[in-house]
Amino acid sequence: MAFMVVLILTYYFIGFSTAQLRVGFYAESCPDAESTVSANVRDAFLSNSKNAAVLLRLHFHDCFIEGCDGSILIENGANSEKNALGHQGVGGFDVIEKAKAQLESICPGVVSCADIVALAARDSIALTNGPIYQVPTGRRDGRVSNISLADDMPDVSDSIQQLKAKFFRKGLSEKDLVLLSAAHTIGTTACFFMTKRLYNFTPGGGSDPDINPQLLPELKSRCPQNGDVNNRLWIDWGGDRVFDSQILQNIRDGFAVLQSDAQLYDDDATKRVIDSYFSLLSPIIGPHFESDFVKSIVKMGRINVKTGSVGEIRRTCNNFN
């Protein structure tokens, strides 16, 4: 009963705080806002296609701490939120700053850094042949960024129950957990995040027994024991580097690279969500992976947003005004 009350209150406050978000928020105040962001994301993608996953991950990490308010962009010393262990490897800051600088030159003090992050994630998905969708905008930038607030960030070593609890606290469901995890389809991971699963998963020092025997030697060859923990490998094993549901099929077959992804098939609720996209009737009557993903990422983009007179519109994304 207490959990239901918390969940209901969470949805209430999310709904209240996002009432002022709308598609086309900058249509009059800065008509070129979205096209300017899109151009910068496209340039970054053409420079390095991995930037699409980097910018998508940035949006997720921003939303999961203080809400989607650009707090992860701030550089205020060692205590900056971006320095949290859970944010290790997060990037794309230069792309956001470049877009912001251009927007400040044409529409000073209008477009928030938080909205730039959300729009950049949308454009990154489109550039990898994922769904094209509209992003409600009107977020304002937060005035808090502190490393101590990042303790609740989902982690690759979390149990499925821990992952579900962290998502629930943000007003997100088990279905959202599956769909947002599927964004890994275009991502890479460092061997740093694989060491425990490959070499120290059991008390005796073995590998995760859920890893498909065909996949295990390949993972170990990419991430050898005592090797370079900064080596990177694709999370969607054998995928074609486009945004699709192949990673969910990999999870079903034991080819999940990340432990957190693999655990989605160990829980009855998340397993049902995954299986639903591979039923015989799914292509005809649904559910449809791409449209459901859009609903989840738009929902995530509404977490604890600042609107109206709350927060600020930063002049540069890495500093408070």
Provide an overview of this structure.
The chain has 321 residues and is mostly helical. 44% of the residues lie in helices and 2% in strands. A two-stranded antiparallel sheet has the order 1-2. Helix 7 packs across helix 12 (268-276). The longest helix has 16 residues, at 2-17. The radius of gyration is 20 Å and the shape is globular.
List its traits:
single chain; 321 residues; two-stranded antiparallel ribbon; 44% helix; disordered N terminus
Query: Helical content, roughly?
Result: 40-55%
The termini sit apart by 43 Å
Low-pLDDT runs: 1-16
Mean pLDDT: 93
**Biggest pleated sheet:** 2 strands, antiparallel
What is the number of E strands? 2
How many DSSP H or I helices? 14
Q: Structural class given helices, strands, pairing?
A: mainly alpha
Strand content: under 5%
General shape: globular
Evaluate the radius of gyration: 20 Å
Give the topology string: H per helix, E per strand: HHHHHHHEHHEHHHHH
Tell me the strand order in the biggest sheet.
1-2
